[in-house]
Amino acid sequence: MQRIALCSHKHRQGSLRPQEDREGAMMPVVAFLMPIIMIFVGYSVNIAYMEKTRTELRLSCDSAAKAALVNLGATQSQTTATSFGKSVAARNLVGGASLTIPSGNFTYGSAIKQGDGSYLFTSGGTPLNSVQVLGNATVNLPFGSMMPSGKYTCSQTAFATRISHDIVLVLDRSASMSFDLSGSEFVYPSDRTLYSPLQSYFTSPSPTASRWKALTDAVNSFTTVLQARNLDVKVGLVTYAETYSLGSYSATEASLDVQMTTSYSSVGTAMNVWGQTPLLGDTNIGAGLTIAQGELTGSRSRTTADRTMILMTDGVPTTGNTDIPSQTLANRTGSSIVTHVITFGGQAASGSYNTSMQSAASNGNGMFFNAATSSQLTAAFQKIADSLPAVLVN
């Protein structure tokens, strides 16, 4: 029994020798591979750190560009906007250090939408609605000894565009705006037919069924859409008719009723005031466009904003400059003003006058709408409001 046990013990000892030999053989392999593994680890860490640095730099440049752009819209000063953008950049860490962006790395210009939906940036272009920021960073790598300089340098460019809008509504307040919605001339709503035609003419428009009431509702809908979309828009109001005087009754050919403002309620208030006043005289569209052009290019206009007119008429130009297509073309080429045109019932709804209004919109690079009903008039104003671009892109 003892001999058998001894043999058995020797056999177990003999069986361990090949495993010990394999373990011994692996040690040189591990020793050889360890430096290679460390090199791969070092490079992986360096690459991850590089990517982290690029991401931090890009986010910092993005925030600087957006901050400068918003400040530019508020102050209209590139110098102030640049200082603000630099201060925002400095609050961000890139590679553990505060980011410093030189003033010369802030470039201001215009971004215009292209046919493919992209935006083309032009340095120094107008409207001044964009800023481009270039940021540079140099950081020490965690495993810097593996790199020639031990450092990593990268650059990122951020581009931000914010479309602001200066808009002037150019609205018809001639006598025909007191007519009903039938599209017929000299037909008043039922609550105004209690008077003679002459009395109806010198009475304020119906608060329920006149063309002016439909226009007031459409304008209120327009400003509601602007508020809902939270657009950067200033709105002004110009109305036009003709110079008219008879006894105690009078009218001016055109007036700036509301200077461009972000207080849209003032536009509704002015519309209501006209709704309580007899609307008198013929139609001097040209005079209204001239006043609107002055407001869009005057002291209240913004160099950062697109300029837009929305012309609405129910009639035809009867006094003043009657070549409206030429005037909208001149406003576009000379003042970069886009003009949308809406015709609403009456004489402007058909024939050569309607064709002329279509040409006015085309020459003004704007949209054209021919509204036959109150709901179509509201829809036209809403569509214009919905079409206004508001982007902030990188």
What does this structure look like?
The structure is a single chain. Helix 7 links the parallel strand 12 (305-313) and strand 13 (337-344). The strands form four sheets. Strands 11-8-7-12-13-14 form a six-stranded mixed β-sheet, sandwiched between helices. A four-stranded antiparallel β-sheet has the order 4-3-5-6. The chain is α/β, with parallel strands linked by helices and 394 residues long. The protein starts with a helix and ends in a 7-residue tail after the last helix. The protein contains nine helices and 14 strands. The protein folds into two domains: 37-162, no CATH class; 165-387, Rossmann fold, CATH 3.40.50.410.
Please identify the top-level CATH class of the largest domain: Alpha Beta
Order of helices and strands: HHEEEEEEEHHEEEEHHEHEHEH
Oligomer: single chain
Global mean pLDDT:
89
Radius of gyration: 36 Å
- SS class: alpha/beta
Poorly predicted spans:
1-14
Number of domains: 2
CATH topology assignment of the largest domain: Rossmann fold
| CATH level-four homologous superfamily name of the largest domain | von Willebrand factor, type A domain
End-to-end Cα distance: 88 Å
Shape, per Cα inertia axes? elongated
Sheet-strand content, in percent, reads 15-25%
User: Which CATH architecture of the largest domain would you pick?
Assistant: 3-Layer(aba) Sandwich
Give a short overview.
The chain has 394 residues and is α/β, with parallel strands linked by helices. It is 44% helix and 23% strand. Helix 1 packs antiparallel against helix 2 and helix 4 runs antiparallel to helix 5.
